[in-house]
Amino acid sequence: MTEAAWPYPRHIAHRGAGKLAPENTLAAFRHGASFGYRMFEFDVKLSGDGKAVLMHDATLDRTTSGSGRVDALALGELAALDAGSWHGPAFAGEPVPTLAAIARYTQANGFLVNIEIKPVPGAEYRTGAAVALDALSLWKDAAVPPLLSSFSETALEAARLAAPGLPRALLLDRLPPDWLGRLHRLGCVALDANHRELDAAVIGQAHAAGFKVLCYTVNDPARAADLLDWGLDGLITDAVDTIAPDRTGA
Fold first, then answer.
1. Is residue 14 flagged as an active site residue?
2. Are 82 and 64 in contact (CB under 8 A)?
3. How far apart are the first and last CA of the chain?
4. CA 24/CA 139 separation, integer angstroms
5. Which of 32, 45, 52, 100 is 20 to 30 Å from 132 at the Cα level?
6. Average of pLDDT values for 19-40?
7. For residues 28-51, b (16+ Cβ closer than 10 Å) or e, as one string?
8. What is the CATH number that goes with domain 11-61+98-237?
């Protein structure tokens, strides 16, 4: 993916709307969109019967009315859970969405997505391959493909083999000495790093090697401004109400 072809906006809403709505739900996407955001980052893993659903944690307890492992339940059982009440009564009854539902919503509204492949432990390869194949099918008619990312290099390698045409970004909480080599080896188009690891030099180094740079999770407007001034290509934020997205172009 060349610089001229980079189609993604610089501001990306984290898990839909950050902390202002129940994360990884359609309600969150709608709320994030109300602040002008047009690209959304969210987490995807597999249900017990291999269906792609939005969920950050390996367990259900924090963000749903269920408990235990996400992959212990089939899609129909996950669909019966309440994924909104934990955040507040206004969101009571909000369901756990499927990747297919998010694909329909975002494409109908002209939004772009960053799908974080978030496998439960032990399911890295299977999840990477399945989510990539689903994304390839669900966005087959989209003008702009989803950006796939993961902390799991195993999942990204599986995604590369399953859907080599979809762009990928490697998530890194700390930058190891061989971070550029890892990006090359996985065929990534971008680095997606903890913002604390980035400065103008690192961003410049990535750009010189042909990679875009995204970062998470930036909630301070002054820090966001510095990163964007240094040439950051994508800023993932919870602060959708205080960090205004670009209104024109990418």
1. yes
2. yes
3. 15
4. 19
5. 32
6. 98
7. bbebbbebebbbbbbbbbbbeeeb
8. 3.20.20.190
CB of 12 closer than 8 Å to CB of 87 = no
**Domain parsing of the chain, residue ranges:** 11-61+98-237
Looking at 14, 31, 87, 195, which residue is catalytic? 14
Catalytic residue among 11, 31, 56, 207: 56
Q: What is the 3-state secondary structure (H, E, C) of 142-189?
A: CCCCCEEEECCHHHHHHHHHHCCCCCEEEEECCCCCCHHHHHHHCCCC
Backbone angles phi, psi at 209, to 5 degrees: -90, 0
Q: Is 11 a catalytic residue?
A: no
What is the per-residue pLDDT across 44-74, written as a single tens digit (0 to 9) for each? 999 999 999 999 999 999 999 999 999 999 9
- What distance in Å separates the CA atoms of residue 34 and residue 157, rounded to the nearest whole number? 35
